[in-house]
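ERR on first pass: missing label on line 2. Operator R.T. fixed the label and resubmitted. Corrected input:
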Amino acid sequence: MSHEKLRTSRKWLFLSMGIYLVLFVVGLSFGASTLSIDRLIPVLFGQGTFKEEFILFSIRLPRILILTLAGAALAMAGAVLQSVTRNDLADPGIIGINSGAGVGITVFYLFAGSKIQHFNYVLPVIAFIGGLLTAICIYFFSFEKGKGIQPVKLVLIGVGFASALSGLMILMISSAERQDVAFISQWLAGSVWGTDWPFIVALFPWLMICIPIIYFKANVLNLLTLSEPTAIGLGVNINKERSILLVVAVALAAAAVSVTGRIGFIGLMGPHFAKRLVGPKHQSFLVITPFIGAILLVLADILAQIIFSSAAVPTGIVVAIIGAPYFLYLLRK
Amino acid sequence: MKVQIEGLSVGYEKQTIVREMSLQIAEGKITTIIGANGCGKSTLLKAITRVIPYQGGNVIIDGKSIAKMNTKALAKKLAILPQNPESAQGLLVQELVSYGRFPYQKGLGSLSKKDKEMIEWALEVTRLTEFCDEPVDSLSGGQRQRVWIAMALAQGTEMIFLDEPTTYLDMAHQLEVLELLERLNKDEGRTIVMVLHDVNQASRFSHEIIALTKGQLAGHGTPEQIMTPALLRKVFNIDAVIGNDPRTKKPICITYDLIKGEERDEEMADDFARTLVGSM
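pass 2 clean. output:
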């Protein structure tokens, strides 16, 4: 890597970290009841009132941490999907993996009911199974013998799966109790619901395992974005690497949406912005991708609270309001 | 390094494209595969380089079947330049060339001293050193093709396989690419195997030509042995006039006509109709 490029990479890494930290602080002090910025440090060190401490440690901090982890996970999942499928439009939401995870959650919810809160460790696993089954189906349908994965076909089939599975979820809950319906519809809208410490503990290991694997495969990812014969010629075991990376991406996305509800577009925008800033080489852009994902999701959550403070609009809706026009812009390009 | 092809059959689904072909690729030479559209030239090249699997027979490199070899180990022996590889958006020339070092890298993929030397050398041989910090997309077609060749060179293999390396290039750039390959063969002793459409270029630059027709070997020999009216008639269904290049003394096809009034005409019309349907 040339020195100039290395410098730009570093610059953007520090800048995105900085922006994230600012949003982190803003996010802590924003909300239904205010906790002004100058009170943050005293409260952090145990000098706050009971009410202040409750807001900070039981509501705000876990929420922001969940949003951070989920944003990072979704962006990394999107980055991997885009490279593996050689399609810039790939995103765990758009190609139906999130909906597959959602079906898993719905089925589980219909059994567990309101006790679902106690199954925080099981939820990501259930979502992962649902997401993986969907991914395998999509992969299978968009695979052509002798040619491999067809990127355009994959997105079309994925979009089909996404809407079919959302329909399936609605079908499943139509016979359920009213409060169950409320939970599922909130999940579909991407209202971040698992905002408590146990969920952070449940989500964190998934990132700790999956993200290092992705960094370790940066070189392979570089080659997978080239044409298939080129990658094979350079000695990439395409089928094996694709399978591993696909499973990792599904694991990240499914684990994230199991606690945040169906949030799309972060996996699309995160890696795109990162590539635009530091170039398409994975060693460069994968470093800032999780930060950008976290920034986008935390920002969307703050916006949801500022703009729509009275209506309690789900974060997923705000992300979609930003993400959908960007998706259309990419389609036109 | 020896490449031995024994009774090789390759195909997709039920359709067999290459039928029980046996031949040996000359070591340290330039070999060109020629043949009409759809005769299986590209398929043969892809099968030899394990880009597609084969159904029957065997491809043996250094006494070992490629089907049983580790793909990364094979990447240290042979490099491939596929037909019109897509350009990697936004990548710099030296980044793309550095991908050629993949078979030698482990883990996170930082470049060793040897890797850097090979990249530098590959850029130098292809005369791209001055463009090393430019995005690949910003280069002309001829330069871009040289970047892909540089990537294959950085792979440091004894053998290089190229599928139509001159397609979409103008006359001067075509020659530039072929002369580069010739130089690599002469100075570095690399074995080069390529698919070309232009029989005159094949004749001028190759030590050996493999002529295919309908998935079978029509001839394999020196340009003088292959560039005959009878063989070109068999391979391309043309009536060719063969002369000698006044400069290189190699045989060339001066002019040619289609052969008319035979049953092949009908077949060609069928072929044409199929291509039309296929491209829609």
